[in-house]
Amino acid sequence: MYIITYMYNGQNYGVCGKKLLKVKAHKENIKPRINGIGNMTELEVEIGQNLSLKCEAFVGDLPLYVNLYWVMTNGSNTEYHVDYCTSFRDKLCMETTDDKGSIWISELHIINVSNNDIKYQYKCKLDSFKSNDERLITIKLKDKSQDISKKVFTTSIAASIICTACILILVGLCILFRIQIVLLYRSISRVDETIGDGKEYDAYLSLESFSTFESEERRFALQTLAPVLEDYFGYKLCIFERDVVPGGALVDDMNSFLEKSRRLIIVLAKDFTSCKAMYELESGLYKAMVERKIKVILIEFTQSEQSFQPESLQLLKMKSKVKWKGDKSLPLNSTFWKKIQYLMPAKPIKTCSSSLALKTIQMANNKDILILNSL
After folding, report:
1. Within 13 Å, how many C-alpha atoms sit on residue 255's CB side?
2. Contact call for residues 134 and 34 (beta carbons, < 8 A)
3. What span, in angstroms and rounded, lies between the C-alpha atoms of 232 and 173?
4. 281: which DSSP letter?
5. CB of 325 within 8 A of CB of 336?
6. Which of 47, 97, 38, 92 is nearest to 68 (CA)?
């Protein structure tokens, strides 16, 4: 802004206005300096990597009166100039220009960083007759615990997913083949859970759970189930009509033999009408669920629904039930016989010879012949 005054006929007059003025400093008045913010920089490195330290300085129009160089110091006042001719370090100088003057760029290359290189501090120094400037750079080892590379992170995530999937598959296979796994373990370890339990029989087989003596379920129990469990697998069964001496009190004898048995095998019939059948069932279930003295194995033989079924049977867990599937269940290595073995007490089983395993057992309908294949 400016004001011009003048006098006319004895009076003062003024003229004012605005004018933008630019003051251009002479290049020689700009002092050389190292570009950047601050005078100290810290870098993290890993042993063995290559490192390049860059220093950029403005020198103006007086490059002949400026020196830009690197020095090393170990913390003391002693400085070691980095020579252009050293074999393990190389100093490269480049020059560019802008409207203000020349810019020098010096790079210090450290090949294969070692522990010895980390001990030093590195200074980029600028000397001129107008001013001096310097930039300090220190290097330290990178903390790997705080810096996980993308490759390591991706690999860890992938490994975690694969391990989780493998565990889930393994758990699924164990659940799916748990019966085979348990039977294999028993066979290898020869475990015997019957020692010292005070029991005489491996299982109590209830026979009069049927309304007629000629029912399919009865023939199956007597002519198929019992012979295989006793003659082939070597279990000791208690069959009331066979093992109890007549003349005693029915209830007392039944309770006594249930106490001596480790399992209660019930072949599910179309109905449960006899008093003895109901007492066997209710006594066995009471000992199984209340007293915890016996375990129940329920065999579903008939395909048709039962006309009468005690409510107590509904309390049995599904894992205690085995379903007879006709011809599919005939071979001794079928799922039916394996699950029966799984539910029976664990004990070393002495199976019969292959010749005895191929013996013929008459089926309940007295027409078909069942040939049991060896395992």
Report:
1. 6
2. yes
3. 29
4. H
5. yes
6. 92
Instruction: Kindly state the tokens that stand for 107.
Output: 């790079």
Of 314, 260, 326, 252, the C-alpha closest to 289 is 314
- Could you read off the pLDDT of 150-196 as tens digits, one per residue? 788 889 999 999 999 999 999 999 999 999 999 999 889 988 888 88
As given in the structure block, the two tokens for residue 367 are: 């027409």
For 90, the token pair is 């190389």
For the segment 295-315, the average pLDDT, to the nearest whole number, is 66
pTM given for the model = 0.53
pLDDT in tens, 319-366: 788 989 888 888 888 999 999 999 999 888 765 543 444 453 444 334
Positions marked catalytic: 280
Question: Could you tell me the two tokens for 59?
Answer: 């020198």
Cβ pair 106, 55 in contact under 8 A:
yes
Burial of 144 (C-beta count, 10 Å sphere; 0-12/13-18/19+): exposed
Q: What is the DSSP string of 240-263?
A: HHHHSPTTS-HHHHHHHHHHTBSE
- What mean pLDDT is predicted for residues 133-146? 79
Single out the residue of 183, 43, 199, 190 nearest to residue 108, CA to CA.
Answer: 43
